[in-house]
């Protein structure tokens, strides 16, 4: 966009330069013609008479002036062509620079992750997705741990209660066994005493 503005300004400059040169050349020729008309011509009735050598000299001046102006115009055209060539080269270089810049931006915008090329935004999304999955996994594992810990505590309480009941039952059973042994012993003693008496 800047190059097209530069190109327009450059062409406008040369156009103004050519027009200005042509106007100055015309003014010089016009002044010379006016001077020639006033000094080198004579009037006869309604006609102007001009001596041929003077007219040829004036035409020679006009032809030389035109030749100089045409040379300047040709030089200006050659310079315009040269500048257009330079402008085309600059445009080509700009295109190459833009292509290189685009490739560089794409390279800077991509990251190789685990052998996969991805954009930085895709990489950020992928990393945050992994972090989110890890957070959810850790939170799930923590909840499972809390649940299992609660179940374990309840199981330990129940085990302690069962152990207490078992210990109490064992004590009771021991007491009952001791009592039964005593009763048995008492019965055996009584039985033996009855045998002795018989």
Task: Give an overview in words.
The strands form two sheets. Strands 1-2 form a two-stranded antiparallel ribbon. It has helices at residues 2-39, 52-108, 120-197, and strands spanning 41-44, 47-50, 110-113, 116-119. Helix 1 packs antiparallel against helix 2. Mean pLDDT is 81; it is low at 9-26. Helix content is 87%, strand content 8%. The longest helix has 78 residues, at 120-197. The chain has 198 residues and is mainly α. The termini are far apart. It has three helices and four strands, in the order αββαββα.
* Estimated radius of gyration: 60 Å
Structural class: mainly alpha
Biggest sheet record: 2 strands, antiparallel
Helix content class: over 70%
Largest sheet: spatial strand order = 1-2
Shape: rod-shaped
Beta-strand residue percentage: 5-15%
Total E-strand runs: 4
State the order of secondary-structure elements, H for helix, E for strand: HEEHEEH
State the separation between the terminal residues, measured CA to CA: 141 Å
* Unreliable stretches covering 5 or more consecutive residues: 9-26
Number of helices: 3
Keywords:
single chain, 198 residues, mainly alpha, two-stranded antiparallel ribbon, two-stranded antiparallel sheet, 4 strands, rod-shaped
Detail the topology: elements first, then pairings:
Layout: H1 2-39, E1 41-44, E2 47-50, H2 52-108, E3 110-113, E4 116-119, H3 120-197
Antiparallel strand pairs: 1-2, 3-4
